[in-house]
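Memo to structure team: turn this sequence into structure tokens by end of day. - J.P.
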Amino acid sequence: MQRYGSKLVVLIGMIVLLIIAGCGNLSVSPGKGELVEPPKTGTGQGLPNGETAAAPAAKATVYPLKVKDATGKEFIFDKAPARLVSISPSETETLFALGLGEQVYGVSDFCDYPAEALKKPKMGSIVKPNEEALLASNADLIVTGVSMKIPAVEQLRSLKLNVFKVDPKTVDDVLNNTLVFGQIFNKQEQAEKLVAEMKADRQKVTDAVKNLQPEQKKRVLLEFSPGWTVGKGEFMDELITLSGGINIYGEMAGYSQLNEEKVIAANPQIILYPSNLIDDKSKKTLDQIIKERSGWEKIDAVKNNRIVGVDKDWISRPGPRITQGLVDIAKGIYPELVK
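Reply from structure team:
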């Protein structure tokens, strides 16, 4: 379904046109999925002599289409891939949201949304999927996301599997990847509509908190899994900052194990946790665990009962529902501002 364009690498003066939602920013961070050529659509050309064109036709991708994924690998699509496998819950949600559910043959063991995804054949884990199942799927394209590392992607490619990886670190990356998928699968209008809805969620939050003064901003701890939090450079940290909060782990990069003394010293005013998560070991909810920790009764968030549950999947999956997670977080931090 594709031919790989290693022979067509023309880097002199290459224009990378990235349709990115928000901020009017056309630059792209390395490692994100990107269009290598300007988007081609079936909207027609300008008419001479000032003539007025008829209403434009629905946007349609013109193939061949050249795209790079997050590993830097260049793909050339002769037509829209028709038989798909997704081994990432976020990307499964995106494919279904674009109206591609019937073309999704298989999904990972963890893909549970929308409900239709549960009926699809299972392809194994999101970190190391079932190679035999992937080979048997005869998929035109296999899509994976943040959980699969590059060596695992390359292992699958060594088996002649066409694996396209995305690695979103920000909300803009999620929006951009959605638009790139719209191009690849000839679903541009659906992608643009979805991105517009997500941008509206983001605007609602940023408008609500834009007048906060520095001294009004709340100190926030996000414990997304028992004993684990997140720092700068990851999309969950951005959800806190977009919501007007101050992440007490914001000076650290990536994902971190909690240091309980550090948390007590930082004295968060809000503690966010996934409300629909049960700890495997203790069988307790995370808010129960937080309240029972020695010394944490001194923390403002615990004293004032500002331990706020948010939807686990909304905040942890960088897909179509990520901005719903943003609204959820913003309501948790500033319920008086975000309705």
